[in-house]
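re: ur question from earlier - yeah i can do the single chain one, its not a big deal. heres the input i used so u can compare w yours
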Amino acid sequence: MTRSKIAAFLALAFIVLFCFAGVTATTTVKDTTVAAEMGLPKLLFSLSSAAILLIPIALVAAGAAFIAFIQGEKNVGMLFSFIATVAFGLFMVFFSMEEKNSCLYTPISDALKAAEVKFKKRDVDLITPSFNLLSWLALVCLGASCVIGHGDFSKERRHILKRDLLPYAYIGPHLFFFVIFFVTPAIYGIYAAFTKWDLFTEPVFTGLENFKILLFDAENTYFKQLRNGLWNTVKFVIFCVPFCIIVPLSLALALNARPKGNKIFQALYYLPSLMSISTVTLTWRYVFNVQYGVVNHFLGIDANFFMPPYTWIMLVIVTVWWCTGSTMVIYQSALASVPQDQYEAASVDGAGTIQKFFNVTLPNMTYPLMYTLVTAVVAQFNIFGQPDILVGFSNGEANAVLLQYVYENSVKKQVAGMSSAMAVILGLCIMAVSFVQMRMMVKNQQD
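and the output i got, formated as tokens:
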């Protein structure tokens, strides 16, 4: 058996041992010491410890190392096994340092009840975790996989090592933060949608109960919130997306004509996209304030622009003003790549400005237009900051979007399981719409 295959076997052994490994929690309450065990696979789905977020990284890296070693890529396999070793080792260190771990409270409380100890939660002030032998053996397997599977570090072979690992050095930092701050939270968020969870205690798995309430229980408040929030989100997308395409395209066409001072105008149009959504919405909120706003003072009126019938208009204007700059730059790049000989041929055929636009400009901008359409739809489906800051839940929740309910229920009301289910439903809607749009892009590209 070659060293690569041995290293692959050790990486696979880590995954197998992880499934049977566990941690023992110990505490003393009223002179009674109890201990409880919790398996690492069950611990993986606990949402009460930040250190647990390192486990998915270790498992994914170990799987990647196994595949690399099987394919004979020793250098790549060594890299991934090293990452897995560091991630799992850091998890064990940080998790052991947590003296009052919430995810271990449930088994400890069950052990105290079994020992017939009367206690309150505040009595459990110290929970000491310790990993069992299989956990340490899993870590040893990872380390051995890294050592045994290492490549040839001789001077003659260093160029091969550099060739194999340099691409990962470029994408590694981005991939690390992408997994930590996007992929892992998304996985845990989907899991939370199937639980009853208040953000403080351990989530209790309830299956499809949250979705049954949201989709079929017409008398439930969350059913009404989902219906109202999702419909308002869809309305906002319908109202806003066309302007998110038309306005930047119009500005790009105007700047493409190279008017005097076009660079200054381009900078001014792009400037709002550099601001945060909080800065943008608060600025517009003060400018259009009913009491001391500049607009009302200048026009000599006392209109409340954040009340019907102006609410949707203001939300669309603020969003388009904020998003126009980045989309405009994409269109400017696309316009610059349109062959000039096509315009000259159209002029020879007697085509006017409008005919050139529809027969020359638009056909050459099909892909950028479809790309920005997809990104605009996805971005506006995730609308939150504008209605939350400008309107909130006023106007009888007439403008409350779904993500406002998700935030309100999860953070303020601690109904995180139901909020996660709402977010999952919204994500499925976005995926369905994006799938249709992507199919349209592929079809247009083939044509």
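Residues 3-192 form one domain. not sure if urs matches, ping me
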